Amino acid sequence: MNAHTPKTHASGATHTADATTVEEGLAIQEEQAKFDSDTATAVAMQNTLLTPRFYTTDFDELDAVDVTPVREDWDLLIAQMQADPNKGHFRKTDDWDHVDWDGMEPGLRKEFIDFLISSCTAEFSGCVLYKEMKRRGSNKDITQLFQLMARDEARHAGFINDALREAGVAVNLGFLTQKKKYTYFRPKFIYYATYLSEKIGYARYITIFRHLEAHPEHRFHPIFKWFREWCNDEFSHGEAFALLMKTDPKLTSGVNAYWIKFFLTAVYATMYVRDHQRPAFHAALGVDPDWYAHEVFTKTSKLSQQIFPLTLDIDHPRWQRELVALQKANADLALAVQRKQTLKKWGAQARAARAFVSLLLIPSKANKVPASTRMEPVY
Ligand SMILES: [Fe+2]
Ligand SMILES: [Fe+2]
After folding, report:
1. Most buried residue, 75, 78, 82, 321, by most Cβ within 10 Å?
2. Cα of 153 from ligand 1 centre, angstroms
3. Could you say which architecture CATH assigns to the domain 16-312?
4. pTM of structure
């Protein structure tokens, strides 16, 4: 039992799941922060190519976006988000089975905690960016959207932190906001990266959810039961970014098509490498990480046809081969860094760069974008 009773906030909510605004959600987490651990926060503070980052952008440019060209779809989406079907969902209920953290196999425990910390950081990264846009903007459409998305991400991050706390670790989100390094991206790169991370997030959560629906014996932690509603939030966030891109056709044509290809390749490759660092986690879920990657890429590619003028050829013979090469180079790189072997480190870096360029040079498939972007989650 937690001896500590959180303060009641503006609307009376004591849990992030019930918070109706991002400010309220963050205030509740601030209260809990006293109990959060230094180790988990240190992990979340890491900035490498593979760990979730915090972003900042040109908020004035984003604030100037006029959503008139997509008004009809925009209003529908906002109304759907305002109806807030997931209010109160992201909290422990009777469905939350007891987790035997001490009895968990140590390798799995380590990888699973790492997975939770990295997911929590990624959720919170979205929260911080969206909240900042809402705070700085004066365009009603834009601030309204970003307020709603920040609200959702605060709940998601808060819920993962609840799960971490049971294991005796939790991320101090207030500390992260203050101290973590922020990477600057122009708004168009924020669109590509964030759109993709929302849609790939949806694809990842729903693929695990459906797999565990069919194989409940592999559900080694209750949090997976919450993934369906969770991924619907991410789906809506992705829809919002698709509409933002739709307001300006230049964002998805001409030279920007190359940027889109770059972001698709980078996001897919990062996911592949990162997931292969967690073999025990995937074995416990009964999921082959290669199957999982292909499944998630297929879904994300299908979804991204709503707005991107191209999709990656993930069935090209070089695709899987180079992903494996990239992942091996990365594993060797980590080992060389750990052992302070400079030459081996350079060698591994060169191999990783070569594999990535080779992935990038696989011809993509052209895609004719439909007139209306709006989609519903169907997986
Ligand atoms: Fe989220
Ligand atoms: Fe999201």
Report:
1. 78
2. 4
3. Orthogonal Bundle (1.10)
4. 0.90
